[in-house]
Amino acid sequence: xxxxxxxxxxxxxxxxxxxxxxxxxxxxxxxxxxxxxxxxxxxxxxxxxxxxxxxxxxxxxxxxxxxxxxxxxxxxxxxxxxxxxxxxxxxxxxxxxxxxxxxxxxxxxxxxxxxxxxxxxxxxxxxxxxxxxxxxxxxxxxxxxxxxxxxxxxxxxxxxxxxxxxxxxxxxxx
Amino acid sequence: xxxxxxxxxxxxxxxxxxxxxxxxxxxxxxxxxxxxxxxxxxxxxxxxxxxxxxxxxxxxxxxxxxxxxxxxxxxxxxxxxxxxxxxxxxxxxxxxxxxxxxxxxxxxxxxxxxxxxxxxxxxxxxxxxxxxxxxxxxxxxxxxxxxxxxxxxxxxxxxxxxxxxxxxxxxxxxxxxxxxxxxxxxxxxxxxxxxxxxxxxxxxxxxxxxxxxxxxxxxxxxxxxxxxxxxxxxxxxxxxxxxxxxxxxxxxxxxxxxxxxxxxxxxxxxxxxxxxxxxxxxxxxxxxxxxxxxxxxxxxxxxxxxxxxxxxxxxxxxxxxxxxxxxxxxxxxxxxxxxxxxxxxxxxxxxxxxxxxxxxxxxxxxxxxxxxxxxxxxxxxxxxxxxxxxxxxxxxxxxxxxxxxxxxxxxxxxxxxxxxxxxxxxxx
Lengths: 174, 428
What we know:
heterodimer, A: 174 residues, alpha/beta, Aconitase, domain 4, seven-stranded mixed sheet, 7 helices, globular, B: 428 residues, Aconitase, domain 3, five-stranded parallel sheet, 17 helices
């Protein structure tokens, strides 16, 4: 199983869509790695510096309806090839969420209160997150604080994460 | 407790329920296009799994960028073409015979009431217009669909939208769906099926129902769905006439795909839409919708009539009825893309292509074209397009460009005016 830990990129906006995550003009690429330079290229978010802010990040924390729009799995892949394999949000667009788990990545939903709390207490700091997969816990650490937050995912989602995705599972079972 | 149409389809297609709320369904159709499928194919090949579950249930088309615009898009087309040949997929539509996926697949009779359908394209929800469960999926789900003929879904929670009254002249299915998305918001139907019912839907053509269902995803919906009726049977008749003795018999068979009266819904919305005005989007989200009257006079630089939402013959006829004998403004570029070769031919026969050309439109071959800024019709920085498409995300038609979603009628009158304009003055 992959490791789910590292520095956090805070994206303080709802409805970040798949065109913003990876513009359609790059859908002509036929390898995941080719998407690497273009992640979040068209994101409109005040204070967001695409080149600098993505560097060395492993986790995204954002607001509502992340990944709305296209079915393109290029969106999770663009995150993945940049080393990001966890997105934490209030909720996700259905196809994007399923694509994340189908790739063995985490799309974790937390209540609005918890998301607000994370933004208030950790955005702007050098924050790290580690997902404790077996115990359903998010371990958040910044310079001056550390705490754990519980999360819930479906059994199916967890199996996909543990097995590394849907193709292997389906090939074995159907 | 009764069941919704989606629950009935799930019951008939469920092959497994490995976890609570995980329904693995048998698929009747797996549709493919050249943008999201080639990468599924190369991954299956790398796993030594280059095969398909049933070549007769897989249908493929090159539509997003056609003819190929560069070496990369040529390679995508080649991968799909070679794969279709290698795996004996007969229903593969290549250049000269290809059209926009959600227009050409219904037109070829590939959709039936009660079917389960997936495709690596978010607007696959269009096919719900026939009383099918049709959902857009990513490349991994597509891969498993191709290989095993199954896909996993959560329980199909359903929102019912009942549309009563009658539409004013100049108001169409596109205006209705923009109004509904405004009401639901872009996240209002996430993880849910949207059922469109009521006398307005009953009176709609299949083309209009497809326009309605096409944009269910813009409210986050998994699928849009309409109940099959005689209009559905008439549309499909050429393809089903060997299976049934009469249209009435077909209707009887298909009539099982309706929701029970005591079915359970997440929410039910009832609207009388008799006073609805034509609608237009103004921002970068499809729920940012205003009446066209509030948007009149907004600058545009391009008009695009086409796409899987509104590139069908009904749409071209409506636009042509407004454009006939008129010229579009010198300040706009007009582009029209009939969605399939059959639509193109019919439009030629009916003199519609001539009307568009005389008015000053450029007529392209059937393709997704300008809709997602991948091929022809890309906007320059700071430009705006009046479009009959389905998505107005920032930069959708090109970096720095703006898209205003609207009906073909509003797009046509806006082309004449050179600014956003209500078509009702031309139709009065």
